Amino acid sequence: MLTILFDGIAYGMLLFVLACGLSVTLGLMNLINLAHGAFAMAGGYCTVILVNRVGVPFILGLPIAFLVTAALGGLFERTLYVHVYRRSHLDQVLFTIGIVFMSVAAVDYVMGSSQQFVIIPQALQGQFIVFGIGMSKYRLLIILICGLLTIGLQLMIAKTRFGSRLRAAVDDQRVARGLGINVGAVFAVTFAFGSGLAGLGGALGAEILGLDPTFPLKYLIYFLIVVTVGGTTSITGPFLASILLGIADVAGKYYMPKLGAFVIYTIMIVVLIWRPQGLFARSAAR
Amino acid sequence: MASVAEDVAAYLARRARWSPLEIAFWICAFATIWLFPGKHLILTEAAILALFALSLDLILGYAGIISLGQAAFFGLAGYCSGLLAKYGLVNEPVIALILSGFVAAALGFVTSFLVLRGSDLTRLMVTLGVALLLGELANRFSNITGGADGLQGVTIAPVLGLFRFDLYGHTGYIYCLVVLFISFIVARRIVYSPFGLSLRSLKGNTLRAAAIGIPVKRRLVAIYTVSAGFAGLAGALLTQTTAFCSLDVFSLDRSADLLLVLIIGGTGYLYGGLIGAVIYKFLQDWIASLTPQYWQFWIGFVLVVIVLVGRERVEEWGRALRASLARLGARVFARPVAIGGAASDGR
Lengths: 286, 347
Fold this sequence. Notes:
The complex is a heterodimer. Chain A is mainly alpha-helical. Helix content of chain A is about 75%, strand content about 5%. Chain A has one domain: ABC transporter involved in vitamin B12 uptake, BtuC. Chain A is built from 11 helices and 2 strands. The mean pLDDT of chain A is about 80. Chain B has helices at about 5-15, 20-35, 40-60, 70-85, 95-115, 120-140, 140-145, 170-190, 195-205, 205-210, 215-240, 250-265, 270-290, 295-310, 310-335. The chains are: A mainly alpha, B mainly alpha. Chains A and B meet through helix 4, helix 9 and helix 11 of A and helix 6, helix 12 and helix 14 of B.
């Protein structure tokens, strides 16, 4: 029972790191980015190549995955995404689905369609037994890293100058522009950072979620659930939503394996009917 | 002095007239039965896709609802017609087709209330969620649906008890084309009715439409249900012509491809889905013959390019092409296309 809770929290934390970039971009630029998973996949494959082929230590591979994906995200943002901000939602959906299709086929071409595994160091395998609860070391590491990241993000958004600019831009873009905040630059940095986080999540999650070319399509729905259920105005909303989703998914698969993913889809639809703006959202400013 | 109602009626009657170009289009469509007997299998797929795209055009092009879950209705009706035939409940394909369409429409009616709420993103999520939910159900209840192996052992009886489905897909193609044509006429009738006009108005501005007394929610529920029914017909046709149905019918790819079809052809004039489906099918066939495994990359590439170039611009080209074709048609048929009503043309 507690093991399931533990696994669920680890899973939820992972989802949060994967999806929080998406929630910020959606809230900031009103951009529906279905290609977020492609960046996560890029991070995962980056780690696989570095750790398995080049022989970089796993712990060093994670920050490199973050940096590579962030650079990739920044590049895409400046060259491609910048053209679709002002378009209709339909255009954004088409555009990002196109990117997903391209990334799936491109990775298939380069890396092959089979599932990839990251070699995890000996020290991280195995379990701790605490009060009779089996806790896998790797999952504990995930909770640790993701927990620190969450606290760091929260502090950054609440305390730093960049954070207050970001919040201002999310709340009211026009006024923020009027006050001299360069919203475009804020967005570019945030997009790159969010993509980087997704890449880190993909690298960490390669072991738990599995990594193959269809990753962006398979987990797209999970990211979107986190964002729609959690709302896009804060960072705590998506955090709580992903923990909830993680626990519900793990518990659902354990107790009712026959129903499987059915549980979370049902929960999502119910939540969306009940609170279309998301479970933890303030009333929308716009 | 004509009253407003008469004005509107005259406007609709004028717009609803079949133009020579449309007649030529359908003559060409039916001529393919004799002209390209070797291409009937791919043309069957194109006809089914066209009907499916038609259903999306009704809600996207006319009512402005973005949906990623049209596959839910497609798949439900597909399984429904497959099961009806497999267990011999309804042997006659036409009746099974109509029944499956109604089942899909019923699902559309129930889920339409979910679509009424929230923004574009919420709609996207809910429609996608419904499709995934059904896909998951079909996967879990494998004792009924065959699970990941697909629904096998389906034998489809001859259409109307007269025409057997043959190996080369001749019967299947004619059957699909006739169903497509009838559905198209129904859709055309809906779109050019006052009801269709009210849909256009609420796509333009929901708030104003509500202010002039259009019951927005009821209209959306109605068109979503009708659209689900058409999508269901397409799904049932697929199962009947291939005598097979797999989990793939619910996939996100299918709904996403459908959006691409509609974007290629253009939204909001019914023929967009039809033309787009033919272009898409042959494009896909051509790319797949070049790179069998990676055709998806080029499909994605086309999507990205279309958006970056600008959907409006692509549609502008299409409109210019249609206009010149219409002029050509008018000259060939040697009669003026726009008869009468020149006074109120300004609106």
